[in-house]
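Suppose a colleague, Dr. K., hands you the sequence of a protein chain of 210 amino acids and asks what its three-dimensional shape might be. Before reaching for any lab equipment, you can write down a predicted structure in token form. Begin with the sequence itself:
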Amino acid sequence: MKKLIRLAALALTALFATPTLAQSMAEGQNKADYLAWLARDPGARAEVLSFKSYLEAAGVEDVVPTWQLVRTASDWRECAGPRFEVAPMGEWVHISETLEFVKAHVEPVIGRVEALSGFRNEALNQCAGGAKASAHRHFYALDLTPASVDMSRDAMIRSICKIHGFRGREYDIGLGFYSGRRFHVDSKGFRMWGANGKGATSPCVTGNYA
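The predicted structure, expressed as tokens, is then:
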């Protein structure tokens, strides 16, 4: 009986300790970290509940789990910033518009996505190297990655570039690509860029998906 209990405990440990590929890109910002943050901070719990209610009313609560939407910058530790933060209420409408695009046009083509970075306060955004007018500052933006490990970078970029070309202008979508399978989507204005932040280097323009 003790052996069975020990094996069950090991299985549970493996279940919660083994990160997905996306979670390994967001070290210290996995679901267990999120739950620990909520447990320590009653104010954060209240803010998250209000945010969840807003997403439900807007019809976008099922696009990306709420706990991923409150991830800040991947550089939070180096910047001594918060690993999770709820954006000010006045900014929530911005992310709902971005999520509408993801729900209607991104996920039907590339499947479920995981959010790696959302709202960043001014100090964290500056430290993380974000532009002064970064769309993350006012919660227009999400950095995303496909949840499926089977989708290649090449296939991901080809698909998202086509989506952006067909529907991006209608939703005022900004689209950027970083290394690996990480990409940026916001609803702050129709534009695109590559890894150096320039529109001319966007793989949607160059056709270079490597």
